[in-house]
# Entry
Amino acid sequence: MSPAGRYASTSAWTWGRLLRIGVVAFGLLALLDVALLGEEQRIVRDGRAGLVRNADGRNMMEACLRTLHEGGGPGTVVMVGASVTFGANLDPIEALPAQLSARLAERDPSYSVVNCAVPGGNSRSPLPVTTAFSRNPDALLLIEVMVPVFAARDTGPLPPWSEQEVALLELASPVQRAWLEQGGHWPSLRDRIEAQLTERVRAYWRLYRLRGPLWIDEELMPNQLVWTLRREVATAGFLPKRFHGQTTNVGRLPWREAYTGGQRPAGSQRIHAPVVALSQRDLSGLLLVARSSAEAGVPVALYEIPLNLPFQREFGLMSDEEIARLARVRAMLRERIAREGLPWIDAPVLPDEAFLDRAHLTPQGSRAFAARLAPAVEEILARTRGAAVPHAAVP
# Structure
């Protein structure tokens, strides 16, 4: 046989060779999955203490999903919201859910808080959490309320559900599903099929389940990838020293220390209140979340996020007239929530050093907020144990 023929026979990709490569690859993945067992147990344990966040953005992290699927127990509080609750630019232990969990556990070790907040979330984002409650109810659902979100304004379409969110929506009770279909929130057949396939992979492949919490950059939000890239470039010192809230305030400085020497925040830090009216879409989403949670037997409480109005005034982002409009929008929202019989926890007044920007918190601000929030949550938990859960009406 010629040298060329011998080379061709030894280098051909035969079915036998491909099978051996596949067996070796499968074996390595299986070993890696076994090696990750301890890490998964740690993530779930820490997640139930509020110490783990949705590291891969809109897809909820494994500890949150595990709690929702299995039920966290009679003392589990689930917190939902957007980036302030998530803890943007904070270490997990500094974020509001972890701080609140520690304070509640000091008084009663059976209490724990799970961080299911989604950066960039909207008023309907918690719906998948409430449908999961229909199988395994928890003690309390705490919903973040950022008042400017509920001011009437021009808005784009809602983002589509992620596959993990669709999988949770499919746990809905018949009543919850009817409400979701009526409101146009029920996922399409195609989305449900894709979610089921993904859920099967998630159930049997530990590395896939943990892909978010194991990611090298726990702050990565794929749907807002520019934030991650800009933060990394700023950290490396290749950007001018401008600060855009949590995106490039890499020193986590209180805003009066960060914005010096003529530096100004980006226009995205402006709070908008164009008219004195409530956004019916956002109000409907919020009340549907409360109604769906009540249907599952889980009481709801709303906690207001403090706003940094001195920041708005300092940089001319809002006029006094706009701030007055925002106060009237808040009063309208507060009154509507009171009519529904839902508990509302007022935002605390925090000092300048508690804020990074218009609303995101420094570690000190997160601790202060948790200290004010804990007594109110304890009172609500004591009051709701054994009490009937009120239903909210959806406009």
Remarks:
- Residues 33-384 form a domain with the Rossmann fold fold (CATH 3.40.50.1110).
- The radius of gyration is 24 Å.
- Confidence is low (pLDDT under 50) at residues 243-248.
- The chain is about 50% helix and 5% strand.
